[in-house]
C-alpha cells in the first residue's frame, strides 16, 4: 500500500487528474445506471401492457418517453454528488439533506410530491386525475340588502334599479340556506304556488347602450331590473305566480357565481316545489352591436336562449331543457316574430341540471339600453304565460 501511495504520489499531475476524472466518471455511470433501474422498475407495469399489445418497439418508445419526462435541477444533481463525495463544495448552493434529496428524486421519477397529499392520492387512485371537482368552499359574505344595492354609483345612477317600494304589495321573506347558513332574500310570489322561479347569476351585468357602465361590481345591475320587470309583468298582467331571488352571486368572487346561484336554485325549488320553469336572467356580452326589433311601435332587445349540455359536467336534464327551450323559441316566433335569436347549446351546465325546464335567457346584450331590455321582459312574460298554458294542457 505504501509503495502504491508512493508511486501515485509521484505520478505527473496530468495522470493524477486523469485518474480523478476516471473515478468521477465511474461514479456517474453507476449513478445513472441506478436511476435507470428505478425508472425501469417504476414503469414495469406499463412495459408489460405495451409488450403484450404493441411489441418490443412500443416498449422501447414508451421507456424513452418516460425517461424523457424525468428531469433533475442543478441543485438536485449537486446534492446527489455531495452524498457520494462529501468533500465536494459548491458555492452559494444550499446543502440538501438525505430526506429532502430522496423526496426530490421521488418526485422527479414518479411525479409523487411528498409535500402535498393530492399528488400522492392521484398516484394511487388514477381516476382522480380525470375528476372534475365542482364543489368549492364558499366564503360567507353579508350581501347588501335590496335597497342598499342601488344607493349610488358615480356617473351611473340613472341605470340602477330603484329600491323596492312595495308597489306590488308583496312582502319579502328571508330564506336561510344550509351551506354556510348564507342569508338569501326572495321576493314573495303572488299566491302560495309560484310557477316561475327567477334569479340572476351575474347580478352586476349592466346595459351600456346609453353610455352606462357594463358592470356595477358588488351591486345589482340592469339585468336585475329586467328580472324584476319580468316577474312583475307575469304576476300583474298575466296572473302567473312567480318568485324571484334577490341574492347577489357574483361578488366578491366572479368565479364562484354559478356555485352560489346553484344553491339559490336548489333553495327556490325546495321551498316552492310548484315551480314549473326556472329562469336565470343575463344579458349577452362580447357582441359588437345591439340587436333590436320593433314590436308594437317599441324597440325591444332580442332574446337568446342558452341551454347547457353534459359536455363538462353531468346534466341528465339537458335534452329536456333543450326541448323546452325550442318550445319557447317557437312561441316567441309565433307571438313576436324577430324577438328571438334562437336557441344555443353550449358546453357549460349553468345549473340547468336542477330542473327539466331550466333555461338561461340573454335579455339583449351589453350594447342594448335598459329600456330595450325592459320591453323584452314584458314580451317574454306574455310568451311564458302562453307556454305555461300549453304545459297545463299537456301540449308540451
Brief description of this entry?
The protein is α/β, with parallel strands linked by helices and 396 residues long. The chain has helices spanning 2-9, 13-42, 44-53, 56-69, 74-84, 98-110, 117-124, 222-236, 257-271, 318-335, 370-392; strands spanning 172-176, 183-187, 196-199, 242-245, 277-284, 292-295, 298-301, 303-308, 340-346, 358-365. It has 2 domains: 2-116, no CATH class; 148-392, Zn-dependent exopeptidases (Aminopeptidase), CATH 3.40.630.40.
Report on this model:
The chain has 2 domains: 2-116, no CATH class; 148-392, 3-Layer(aba) Sandwich (Aminopeptidase). The strands form 2 sheets. Strands 1-2-4-3-5-10-8-9 form an 8-stranded mixed sheet, with helices on both faces. The chain has a two-stranded antiparallel sheet with strand order 6-7. Helix 3 (44-53) runs antiparallel to helix 4 (56-69). The longest helix is centred in the first third of the chain and has 30 residues, at 13-42. By secondary structure, the chain is of the alpha/beta class. Mean pLDDT is 73; it is low at 1-10, 45-55, 90-94 and 122-184. It contains 11 helices and 10 strands. The radius of gyration is 33 Å and the shape is elongated. Helix content is 42%, strand content 14%.
Amino acid at each position: 500500500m505504501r509503495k502504491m501511495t508512493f508511486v501515485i504520489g509521484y505520478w505527473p499531475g496530468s495522470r493524477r487528474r486523469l485518474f480523478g476524472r476516471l473515478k468521477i466518471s465511474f461514479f456517474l455511470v453507476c449513478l445513472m445506471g441506478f436511476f435507470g433501474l428505478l425508472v425501469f422498475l417504476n414503469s414495469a407495469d406499463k412495459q408489460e401492457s405495451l409488450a403484450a399489445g404493441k411489441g418490443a418497439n412500443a416498449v422501447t418508445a414508451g421507456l424513452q418517453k418516460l425517461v424523457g419526462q424525468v428531469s433533475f435541477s442543478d441543485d438536485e444533481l449537486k446534492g446527489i454528488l455531495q452524498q457520494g463525495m462529501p468533500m465536494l463544495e459548491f458555492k452559494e448552493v444550499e446543502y440538501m439533506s438525505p430526506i429532502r434529496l430522496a423526496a426530490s428524486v421521488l418526485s422527479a421519477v414518479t411525479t409523487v410530491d411528498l409535500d402535498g397529499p393530492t399528488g400522492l392520492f392521484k398516484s394511487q387512485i388514477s381516476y382522480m386525475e380525470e375528476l372534475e371537482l365542482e364543489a368549492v368552499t364558499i366564503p360567507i359574505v353579508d350581501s347588501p340588502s335590496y335597497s342598499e344595492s342601488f344607493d349610488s354609483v358615480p356617473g351611473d345612477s340613472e341605470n340602477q334599479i330603484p329600491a323596492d317600494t312595495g308597489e306590488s304589495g308583496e312582502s319579502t321573506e328571508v330564506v336561510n340556506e344550509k351551506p354556510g347558513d348564507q342569508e338569501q332574500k326572495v321576493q314573495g310570489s303572488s299566491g302560495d304556488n309560484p310557477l316561475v322561479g327567477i334569479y340572476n347569476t351575474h347580478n352586476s351585468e349592466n346595459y351600456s347602450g346609453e353610455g352606462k357602465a357594463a358592470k356595477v361590481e358588488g351591486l345589482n345591475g340592469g339585468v336585475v331590473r329586467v328580472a324584476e320587470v319580468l316577474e312583475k309583468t307575469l304576476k300583474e298582467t298575466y296572473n302567473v305566480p312567480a318568485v324571484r331571488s334577490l341574492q347577489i352571486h357574483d361578488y366578491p368572487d366572479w368565479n364562484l357565481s354559478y356555485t352560489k346561484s346553484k344553491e339559490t336554485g336548489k333553495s327556490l325549488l325546495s321551498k316552492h316545489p310548484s315551480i314549473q320553469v326556472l329562469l336565470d336572467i343575463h344579458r349577452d356580452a362580447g357582441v359588437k352591436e345591439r340587436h333590436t326589433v320593433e314590436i308594437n311601435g317599441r324597440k325591444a332587445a332580442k332574446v337568446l336562449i342558452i341551454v347547457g349540455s353534459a359536455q363538462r359536467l353531468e346534466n341528465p336534464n339537458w335534452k329536456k331543457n333543450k326541448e323546452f327551450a325550442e318550445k319557447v323559441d317557437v312561441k316567441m316566433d309565433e307571438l313576436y316574430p324577430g324577438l328571438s335569436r334562437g336557441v344555443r347549446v353550449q358546453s357549460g351546465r349553468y345549473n340547468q341540471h336542477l330542473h327539466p325546464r331550466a333555461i338561461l335567457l340573454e335579455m339583449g346584450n351589453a350594447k342594448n339600453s335598459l329600456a330595450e331590455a325592459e320591453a323584452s321582459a314584458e314580451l317574454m312574460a306574455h310568451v311564458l304565460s302562453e307556454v305555461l298554458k300549453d304545459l297545463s294542457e299537456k301540449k308540451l
